[in-house]
């Protein structure tokens, strides 16, 4: 598990990830169809207060965006795969299976949002105060994500990764002096061929 | 020989077509308990060692007589009513803090904690890999809003849950904080 400082503030819209983790399968034959052999997980920003569209609702969140990129044996983006997603909350909640398989972008990418979501963007001072109070409550989400990729040739690859977002780390810098600091950590992903 | 073959095929056919309740149970185990707690909501309970319910899962009822329901979300008004019937407000104990929502892996969990029970509203959503580019930093400023005489108040007891959480829920879990579920 590595720690990434919330002090590293990228410029707005910067395409450069704050931090990156990757994993590659060993001893995969170079011949045959493209197989996802490498996964790169980019943390695109530091934990901060942002407005984000969540399920069609403009929402106020504190959290980070992750970008997953899948590459084949030749280092090219994987586009011929369907991705199934499950997430297990390590605080004891059940595994949650996202409803539908998704497709990767032409760049072989998928995204994720790990956040504390206060709900719709405040439209009154009362709602703003409630959002701040929500962000300042003790909060920790520890999750294990499992992505299952099935290529059009039937190869199944599984990727797992653990990550944590918390405001219980007192060394994390506060957000605009109103909200407790949040710390995001992510482990090295694991990639394996299932079938 | 013909007789043996005929007997073999007759046995194989009867095995393949055997679809009695005991056949199905032998293959797939005991059925899951599901109660129709409203027209469009099913509830599956789990129990503690003392026989008391420790957890309830609420999810869309897919089939009822003459109806197939493909909706992902729990129906808003039914859900509100079912929650109040299953765990009346007076039995929940004091509210503990504000609602709390975590997202990740295309899922969202919103928790409402009370002294005796915890409600978890869950839904799924898609995350556009490029959505982070459109997200904007939020500046906390009271000056955005005109002053109001209203103070920050607790939620009304008959509408403990935000409308948004009820309207988006695909599944609701109710947990009794002091009861440990039997291992399945």
Descriptive notes:
The complex is a heterodimer of chains A (195) and B (184). Helices cover 6% and strands 48% of the residues of chain A. By secondary structure, chain A is mainly beta. Chain A has one domain. In chain A, the strands form 2 sheets. In chain A, strands 1, 6, 7, 8, 10, 11, 12 and 13 form an 8-stranded antiparallel β-sheet that branches. In chain A, a hairpin with a 2-residue loop joins strand 4 (48-54) and strand 5 (57-71). The two termini of chain A are 28 Å apart. With 184 residues, chain B is of the alpha+beta class. Chain B has one domain (33-147, 156-176). Chain B is built from 5 helices and 10 strands; from the N terminus they run H-H-E-E-E-E-E-H-E-E-E-H-E-H-E. In chain B, the strands form 2 sheets. In chain B, strands 1-2-3-10-8-7-6 form a 7-stranded antiparallel β-sheet. In chain B, a hairpin with a 2-residue loop joins strand 1 and strand 2. Chain B is globular and about 70 Å long. At the A-B interface, strand 4, strand 5, strand 6, strand 9 and helix 1 of A face strand 6, strand 7, strand 8, helix 4 and strand 9 of B. Strand 4 of chain A pairs antiparallel with strand 9 (136-137) of chain B.
């Amino acid at each position: 598990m590595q720690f990434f400082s919330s002090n590293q503030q990228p410029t707005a819209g910067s395409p450069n990830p704050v931090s990156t983790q990757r994993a590659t399968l060993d001893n995969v034959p170079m011949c045959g169809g493209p197989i996802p052999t490498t996964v790169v997980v980019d943390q695109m920003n530091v934990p901060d207060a942002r407005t984000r569209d969540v399920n069609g609702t403009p929402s106020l969140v504190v959290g980070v965006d992750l970008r997953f990129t899948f590459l084949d044996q030749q280092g090219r983006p994987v586009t011929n795969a369907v991705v199934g997603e499950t997430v297990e909350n390590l605080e004891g909640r059940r595994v949650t299976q996202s409803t539908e398989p998704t497709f990767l972008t032409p760049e072989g990418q998928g995204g994720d949002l790990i956040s504390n979501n206060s709900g719709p963007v405040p439209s009154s001072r009362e709602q703003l105060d409630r959002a701040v109070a929500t962000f300042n409550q003790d909060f920790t989400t520890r999750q294990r994500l499992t992505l299952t990729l099935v290529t059009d040739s039937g190869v199944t690859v599984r990727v797992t990764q653990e990550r944590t977002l918390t405001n219980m780390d007192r060394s994390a810098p506060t957000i605009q002096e109103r909200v407790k600091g949040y710390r995001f950590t992510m482990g090295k992903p694991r990639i394996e061929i299932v079938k | 020989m013909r007789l043996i073959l005929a007997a073999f095929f007759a046995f194989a056919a009867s095995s393949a077509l055997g679809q009695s309740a005991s056949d199905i149970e032998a293959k797939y185990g005991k059925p899951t308990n599901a109660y129709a707690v409203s027209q469009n909501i099913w509830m599956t309970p789990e129990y503690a060692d003392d026989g008391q319910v420790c957890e309830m899962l609420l999810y869309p009822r897919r089939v009822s007589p003459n109806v197939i329901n493909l909706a992902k979300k729990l129906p808003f008004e039914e859900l509100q009513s079912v929650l109040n019937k299953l765990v009346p407000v007076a039995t929940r104990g004091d509210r503990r803090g504000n609602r709390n929502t975590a997202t990740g892996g295309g899922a969202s969990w919103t928790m409402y904690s009370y002294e005796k029970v915890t409600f978890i509203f869950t839904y799924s959503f898609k995350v556009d890999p490029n959505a982070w580019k459109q997200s904007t930093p939020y500046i906390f400023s009271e000056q955005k809003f005109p002053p109001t005489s209203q103070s920050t108040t607790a939620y009304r007891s008959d509408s403990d849950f935000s409308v948004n959480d009820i309207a988006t829920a695909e599944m609701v879990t109710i947990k009794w904080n002091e009861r440990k579920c039997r291992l399945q």
